[in-house]
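User:
I would dearly like some help making sense of a protein record. Take your time, and here it is.
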Amino acid sequence: MQKAYSKRRYGPGTFPVTEAAAERIVSLPMYPSLAAPQQRVVEALLAAAHVFSV
């Protein structure tokens, strides 16, 4: 469970599908004003993820 929801009455297992997906998903920042160094980090992470997903 993410910290943002830790004060709620939800506990582990309350949302099993969401919890399973959260273990496999990475959110990367993507927006038009992303600086070039940040873009390179995102590109490197995407390339690494592709290598490990095959």
Summary: The first helix runs from residue 16 to 22. The chain has a mean pLDDT of 86.
